[in-house]
Write a sequence for this structure.
């Protein structure tokens, strides 16, 4: 289900399309001097709005899927690390110092798993609210977890006595899993850029000061209200069309 914010973006674009249709119905009576609110420019902005909405829709699934995949793998990594440490601690010939080193890496892995909120870079117009994107941890913490897990598995691989019978805890399996972590992390990095870009472009088209759909719609209403030959019932055809900005996050 689309979020309230996403629905609001689409409604703004849709209402501009309705407004353009109403203005066309006014014929020659709608003749503003301001180029920005002439029908050809409004049509261009309407088309751009639709294009940016589509771009957000098409880039979001890849981003969401990569985030979900990475989260699952990193959750598995923490569990696997805990199991590996228990196996390492139970291995004959492994010293207390080696176990302590391994536990240090595990503490570091757990210490970076604190949920944070990543916010899309604000567009040039500072009045446009940035778009928050909830990710299970910051990119930096994911990078750190990969590094800590790599050091942990390297420690296990350096101890000949560590040779568990459980396949998933063996060095070869751990090396493969480490590669999957790196790939999953890179996939999020790769899919985040087009998604953030799409949202920023959408925000610029819809909410940029003066040139955005919301501000243009208000200018249209002001002009139509000033035209004597456009009746009050006709004005109400567009005055009732709502154009809203996303609520700023507290």
């Amino acid at each position: 289900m689309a979020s309230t914010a996403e629905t609001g973006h689409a409604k703004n674009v849709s209402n501009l399309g309705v407004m353009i249709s109403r203005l066309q119905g006014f014929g020659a009576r709608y003749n503003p001097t301001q180029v920005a609110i002439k029908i050809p420019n409004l049509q261009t902005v309407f088309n751009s709005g639709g294009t940016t909405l589509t771009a957000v829709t098409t880039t979001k699934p890849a981003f969401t899927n990569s985030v979900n995949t990475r989260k699952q793998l990193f959750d598995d990594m923490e569990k696997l690390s805990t199991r590996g440490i228990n196996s390492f601690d139970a291995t004959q010939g492994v010293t207390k110092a080696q176990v302590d080193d391994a536990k240090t890496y595990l503490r570091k892995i757990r210490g970076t798993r604190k949920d944070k909120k990543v916010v899309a870079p604000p567009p040039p117009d500072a009045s446009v609210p940035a778009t928050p994107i909830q990710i299970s941890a910051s990119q930096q913490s994911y990078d750190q977890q990969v590094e800590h897990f790599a050091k942990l598995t390297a420690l296990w691989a350096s101890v000949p006595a560590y040779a568990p019978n459980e396949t998933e805890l063996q060095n070869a399996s751990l090396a493969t899993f480490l590669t999957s972590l790196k790939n999953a992390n890179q996939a999020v990095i790769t899919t985040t850029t087009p998604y953030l870009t799409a949202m920023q472009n959408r925000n610029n088209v819809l909410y940029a000061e003066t040139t955005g759909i919301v501000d243009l719609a208000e200018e249209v209403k002001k002009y139509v209200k000033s035209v004597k030959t456009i009746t009050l019932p006709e004005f109400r055809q567009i005055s009732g069309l709502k154009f809203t900005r996303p609520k700023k996050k507290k």
About this structure: The helical segments are 4-26, 39-89, 96-111, 139-157, 171-207, 213-226, 232-239.
